[in-house]
Amino acid sequence: MAEDRELIEKYGRPMPYDRNFRGPEWRNRRCTDLPCLLIFILFLAGWGFIAQYAVRNGDLNKLVVPTDSFNRKCGIDSSVLDKKYLFFFDLGKCIDPVVPLTGCPTPQVCVESCPTENFFWDKMKNSLPFGELKKRMICLTDNDKNKLNTIDDMQRAIDQERCARLYIKSAPFLNRCMWEFSPEVCERLPSFLLPRSKRTSSGSQNASPNANDSRGLLDALVADKSQLTQMQFEALALTTIPEPPAVKKQQALAEEPIIQCRRRTEQAETIKQKVRQTDTRLAKLVGNMVAHFYNGTHDSQQLGEEIVEDIINSWYVVLMALMCTLVASLILIALMRWFAAPFLWLSILGVLVGLGVGIYYTVKEYRFWQQTATVPNHSITLEAAVTNVLQKSSTWLYLSIFLSIAFVVILLTVIVLRTRISIAIALTKEGSKAVSSIISTVFFPIFSWILFVLAVVYVIAVGLYLGSIGEPSFRMIRQLDSNSATGVYTENCVCTGQAIEYKVGARCDPKIFEQNCYVNEFLLQRVPCTRTTCSFAEIEHPPFVTWSICYNVFGFFWLTFFIAAFSDMVLALTFATWYWTYKKRDVPFFTLGRAFRQTIFYHLGTLAFGALILAVCRMIRVALEYLDSKLKKYDNAVTRAILCFMKFFFWLLETFLRFLNRNAYIMCAIHGKSFCASAKDAFNLIMRNFLRVIAVDKVTDFLFFLSKLLLTGAAGVGTYYFLVHSPHLIQLHYNAVPVTLVVITTFIMTTVFFGVYSMAVDTLFLCFLEDCERNDGSPEKPYYMSKQLMRILGKRNKFPRQRSSS
Questions:
Q1: pTM of the model
Q2: For the chain, which residues make up each domain, given as ranges?
Q3: pLDDT tens profile 159-213
Q4: Exposed, middle or buried, 543 (CB in 10 Å: 0-12/13-18/19+)?
Q5: What are the residues whose beta carbons fall under 8 Å from the beta carbon of 494, sequence distance 6 or more?
Q6: Carries keyword DNA-binding (predicted)?
Q7: By the 8 A CB rule, do 87 and 111 touch?
């Protein structure tokens, strides 16, 4: 009895055979790593305090202040203190997928107010007087506008893009002059984004003539729409429809958003419908994206329109293909219990045959180019560079050597580890049985994704509010000049009075600078400095805010690692329960729900501990990246080498900790121990079975990758076959558009499904190793593994089993 009691304490399970044994559920679990859970709760409470502090003291308007083409903050910098709105010369160019990375490729200038009427130079230059034309002109600088003395000067400035050729009546949105929004967009805008202003009855009455002028302009432009882009024509059409008098009266008596959300009218809907038939905002976006990879602006725009049309027309085909892929994924996971072995061995054979063919081809090419004299292509193009590389015999020699080494390594690995590969195949079959028995585990990652998205939104919101807390810092600078030898403008800007100590590069105050700094070349009058400005540099955060930002970043790492650990623990508990249930038909129906409950009640502290270790390691890596960016200006080879080594070391450490944490969670799911004890048991168990671990890990990864490729390829081929042979059901410009969407979404979907499958195999593998070490097949200590695994290892239970575990 003493020996049995010692074994129970050592292994954590009863030695006498118990047909009701449930493995992870047998032992009375206790809360693990409770102190770390309390620390995590206190950390979250502190994070909540920082969040409410940030929301109460932050101002997001500081972060969305527009910047013009001269890098001046509208309404903040000295030269544009009274110009707080940003005007775009061609707003249509800003609808581009790379704009957040490269900026909008159109001149931008700060203005006192957004345009309240339409302007079209080519139509108005002969109909409006010179004074009215000059008044309506919007130029990059006041100096450019002052130089407009004749019509020719205006034409020259417009051709040089120093003044806008055309613009449409617009309204400020986040201090940016935007076209009036369509009713659909306005209905979806949050109310806090719509600042409101009072409008008087007289102002409403005065709007009528402008509306009539706008309608006349629209009628004039309908005949010649070539001068306008589709985006501008649509915006002009929507902004030039006068509203009924009753509506105007109602708007005059009530508050109306500055961003006007016009009511639907029959004429507006007709015009918008016609414009949509030829172009859409989505088509513009896709067209601009295609333009980066496709030659010709017109061709790319037309291609973008056709792609968008194909997406809209084929959405139900894509949805149907994804549903079929979902069903096929579940069927393939279920069939893995029978076809895993032939599928894997045929795949390995295919890889070896492919490598053999590659070796033959590279040797053949090497011999050909070794005996053939060629002249390199001197064109400076990517195609020419690739051609020159492929015409070198050394290229094919290196490729043949690489493929030969890969062939020999894979062949020897298969021969040496053939028994362990058989174990990996058997475990893959067991994983298929487990996932098929508890099919709800396949959809569990959706819950983790929702938590992750909420965490990301929370972190970004807190970070933005924290980043807006502080006082703005200004510095006296000179604007850059690409035509100057020094690279900057050499304006003789002199500061007196309160600004007498202002120097280039030093701190300054925009209002004091504007009042006391002038160009010294003019003696009779003070001319404000235009090329030297007091510009916004950064927001200087108080020390508490700086530490709060670091707190927020660390909290993001800790929370996201915790969510991932929670998902791993729930799945590990589920599949461990399945393995340690002797008769698989006795597995509880709500096994996933029970695992979810056990994780919440007992092991959140363990998850917080493991996530904390990874968060600390990731934070160190971020600190090293920040330190590297600060030390780049010193260009020290020693510091670069040290930082490079440290970054590689901590990357390697984090990779190892991820692997160890995953297995620690599995051991915790099996035995209910703390994180450190589980990590120690997992590490020792893996080291005692190192070759098995390598074989199972790589073989299963390879098998799952092939399965994902199979499903993705089948979905793509099936969709293409359906589109080609069903032209009477759907007509598309390019069948590749829906096929590409299906391939991308299918690969993502299968990655999620096989991620759960991979967790099942990893859990069953550690359970299998535990089973091998702690049991001997006797009636007192029977094996829980399947008959196939026992047959591979040459083991068997020494008594007849009433029910098969398979």
A1: 0.71
A2: 2-53+439-465+545-675, 119-166, 180-278, 280-313, 472-538
A3: 888 888 888 888 887 788 877 655 544 544 444 444 444 333 333 333 333 444 4
A4: exposed
A5: 517, 518, 519, 520
A6: no
A7: yes
